């Protein structure tokens, strides 16, 4: 079986976990602080705060910026539901702007159309590992005095205009096992604003800077030293993982570019794609996925239902018509691209895809 994703864990991760367990410091401690410093330096930000998931990073970022009831946050409908749910958690309203048909990222022109007097923030998603158009988005934000919170949960190390995603506004990253690097579960918030960093660290720890002194309402959303120790090792491997994903993507695209029924991923000028997912548009998408499954090749559909059409959002009254997102949901299919793939695996994915369309 060629899986759609595979966590890349080895002896180094096992050794550091054993080290932390032996130390007795298994909750948030010095490894978390070390990981935060290393990640902020890697991402080109002044500050980073580790939390227990990417969803928590998004949620806390909004709270730290004062987003709440009465506010509107413009975001993408074509993402994992945590993107929009994090806005709902604060009492604010997600407002969905449609996406670009080639990158599947939020369309800056559609953002402009959705701005109202209640708009407080924009939450672009760097989907699949390709950066959103941050030049245009930051210009819109600056012109309208809006906060930018980047959902970079799929895009560790991706760059736009020579800057890493998560360094334009306030960034949120996920370290779920299938992401480009993992801590088993975990997340990271990045910022260049000292006040936001301090608020973040308070919110994640019951609103406290000093133990048993609680200055604001907070949560228990901390990362453990066990997770941070894994993260430090994974961060050291991240560039190697990224290079492997990019090489694998190049092989897949070279093999599929002449298949007329398939549209391979694009890479926009001044962008670095880190290929969390290698996502194609495919005619007869569901039949192709079934055919690949029969040949023991894993696939994924990211995402089969846009957020505004999810039952929970329909119950909230969302009736948006977002045609680009809805069409993408019918067509997209993610193929394996992870670093564990061999050249033989990649050739099998390409040849099996070609075989499916040739039989028609």
TrEMBL record:
GO function terms (MF aspect): pyridoxal phosphate binding; transaminase activity
Pfam families (UniProt xref): DegT_DnrJ_EryC1
Co-factor requirement? pyridoxal 5'-phosphate
The cross-references to Gene3D superfamilies, in alphabetical order and at most eight, read: Aspartate Aminotransferase, domain 1, Type I PLP-dependent aspartate aminotransferase-like (Major domain)
What keywords is this UniProt entry annotated with? Aminotransferase, Pyridoxal phosphate, Transferase
Question: Per its UniProt entry, which superkingdom is the organism in?
Answer: Archaea
Query: Is Transferase tagged as a keyword?
Result: yes
Please name the GO terms of the biological process aspect recorded for this protein, alphabetically: polysaccharide biosynthetic process
- Family as reported in the entry's similarity comment: Belongs to the DegT/DnrJ/EryC1 family.
State what protein this is by name. DegT/DnrJ/EryC1/StrS family aminotransferase
Q: Which organism is it from?
A: Methanosarcina flavescens
């Amino acid at each position: 079986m060629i899986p759609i994703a595979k966590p890349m864990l080895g002896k180094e991760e096992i050794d550091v976990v054993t080290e932390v367990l032996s130390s007795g410091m298994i909750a948030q401690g010095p490894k978390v602080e070390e990981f935060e410093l290393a990640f902020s330096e890697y991402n080109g930000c002044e500050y980073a705060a580790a939390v227990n998931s990417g969803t928590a990073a998004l949620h806390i970022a909004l709270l730290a910026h004062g987003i709440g009831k009465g506010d509107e946050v413009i975001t993408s409908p074509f993402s994992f539901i945590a993107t929009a749910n994090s806005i709902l958690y604060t009492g604010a309203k997600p407002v969905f702007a449609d996406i670009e048909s080639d990158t599947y990222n939020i369309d800056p022109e559609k953002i402009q159309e959705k701005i109202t007097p209640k708009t407080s923030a924009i939450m672009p998603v760097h989907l699949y590992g390709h950066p959103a158009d941050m030049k245009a988005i930051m210009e819109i934000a600056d012109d309208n005095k809006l906060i930018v919170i980047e959902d970079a949960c799929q895009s560790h190390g991706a760059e736009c205009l020579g800057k890493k995603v998560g360094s334009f506004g306030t960034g949120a990253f996920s370290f779920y096992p299938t992401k480009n690097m993992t801590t088993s579960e975990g997340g990271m918030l990045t910022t260049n604003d000292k006040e936001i960093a301090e608020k973040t660290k308070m919110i994640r720890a019951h609103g406290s800077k000093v133990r048993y002194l609680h200055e604001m309402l907070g949560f228990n959303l901390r990362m453990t030293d066990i997770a941070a120790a894994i993260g430090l090792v994974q961060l050291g491997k991240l560039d190697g993982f990224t290079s492997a994903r990019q090489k694998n993507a190049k092989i897949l695209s070279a093999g599929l570019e002449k298949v007329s029924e398939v549209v391979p991923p694009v890479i926009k000028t001044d962008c670095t794609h880190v290929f969390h997912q290698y996502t194609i548009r495919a005619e007869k998408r569901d039949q192709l996925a079934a055919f690949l499954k029969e040949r023991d090749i894993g696939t994924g559909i990211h995402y089969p239902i846009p957020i505004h059409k999810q039952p929970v959002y329909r119950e909230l009254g969302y009736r948006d018509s977002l045609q680009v997102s809805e069409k993408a949901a019918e067509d997209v299919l993610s193929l394996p691209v992870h670093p564990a793939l061999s050249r033989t695996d990649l050739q099998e994915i390409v040849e099996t895809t070609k075989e499916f369309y040739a039989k028609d």
